[in-house]
UniProtKB/TrEMBL annotation:
Protein known as: HNH endonuclease
CDD domains assigned to the protein according to its UniProt record, in alphabetical order: HNHc
Chloroplast in keyword set: no
GO molecular function, one term: nucleic acid binding
Native source organism of the sequence: Thalassomonas actiniarum
Length: 247
C-alpha cells in the first residue's frame, strides 16, 4: 500500500484520518476526497483510515504503510498530540512491527529507526525516574535493535552498565563535560556523584559484538545538556553543543 503516495497527499490523509477516527467524518466522505479528488486507490485509502483509527487507539494494525507515511504522520502526531496520546501511537506502531515480524520476518529497518528516534524524544519529555542516573542510553534506545538482538544486547548492557558508567565517571569526574555543572558543588551532599552518562555512539550502527569503551564512547553530562544533545538524531556531538552555549 501506498509507496507512490506523496507527502502532500499524506498530509490530507492525516487530516481526514483524524476526523475519521474521531467519528466526525464517515468513510464514504473520506473516500470522496482521497479517491475522487486526490486520485488515490480506494483500498489503500480505506486501509489508511483503518490504520489511523488503530494508531490513535494504541492498537495493532495489519496493513503495511510506506516509510514516508510514518515520517509524515509521526512528525504531525508529535506536534499535535499530548504525551500520553503520542505514546499510544508509538505503542500501536510497535505492535504492528511485532505483527509484521511474526508473520513474515520483515524488519522494516527504516520504520524501526524512526520509531526509536521518537521513543528517545519522548523519553526526554517524560519526567525522569528516581534513579535517572542509572538509566543508560542503551536502555532508552533499545528499540533501535532488530527483533531478537534486543534481549541479548540489553542483557549485555545491564551486565556492563554499572562498571562502564563507573569507569567513565572515574575518568572524567561526576561533572558535566559540556557545561561543567558539578551537582555536589551546587546541591551539597545530595548531589554527590549525580550525573547522566551519555552514550556517544549511534545505536543504530551497533552490532551485537560491540563492547562499550567507557572513555571513548561514554561521557558524563548533566540532564539539561543530555536533553539538548538528543534534540538531534543521531545525538549531536559534545563539541557542537559546547559551541552552541551562549556565554
Ligand atoms: Zn551540562
Ligand atoms: Zn544520551
Amino acid at each position: 500500500m501506498g509507496k507512490e503516495i506523496t507527502a502532500a497527499q499524506l498530509a490530507t490523509v492525516y487530516e481526514l484520518g483524524n476526523l475519521f477516527s474521531a467519528n466526525k467524518l464517515p468513510l464514504n466522505q473520506v473516500l470522496e476526497t482521497l479517491v475522487g479528488s486526490l486520485n488515490m486507490n480506494e483500498t489503500s485509502s480505506t486501509n489508511y483510515m483503518r490504520n489511523f483509527a488503530a494508531l490513535k487507539a494504541g492498537k495493532v494494525y495489519k496493513r503495511a504503510m510506506s516509510a514516508l507515511s510514518y515520517q509524515v504522520f509521526l512528525a504531525k502526531f508529535y506536534q499535535d498530540l499530548s504525551i500520553s496520546d503520542f505514546e499510544k501511537v508509538l505503542h500501536s506502531i510497535t505492535l504492528h512491527l511485532q505483527y509484521r515480524w511474526s508473520k513474515s520476518k520483515v524488519k522494516h529497518k527504516e520504520i524501526r529507526k524512526l520509531l526509536a528516534e521518537y521513543q528517545s524524544k519522548l523519553a526526554l519529555l517524560i519526567p525522569a525516574p528516581p534513579f535517572a542516573n542509572e538509566v543508560t542510553d542503551e536502555v532508552i534506545h533499545k528499540a533501535n535493535f532488530p527483533e531478537g538482538a534486543i534481549k541479548q544486547v540489553t542483557v549485555n548492557a545491564y551486565e556492563r552498565n554499572s562498571r562502564a558508567r563507573a569507569a567513565c565517571i572515574a575518568h572524567y569526574g561526576a561533572c558535566c563535560q559540556v557545561c561543567k555543572t558539578d551537582f555536589e558543588k551546587v546541591y551539597g551532599n545530595i548531589g554527590k556523584g549525580f550525573i547522566h552518562v551519555h552514550h556517544k555512539i549511534d545505536l543504530a550502527s551497533i552490532r551485537e559484538s560491540y563492547q562499550v569503551n567507557p572513555i571513548k564512547d561514554l561521557i558524563p553530562v548533566c540532564p539539561n545538556c543530555h536533553a539538548m544533545l538528543h534534540t538531534e538524531t543521531p545525538a549531536m556531538t559534545v563539541e557542537k553543543l559546547k559551541s552552541l552555549i551562549k556565554s
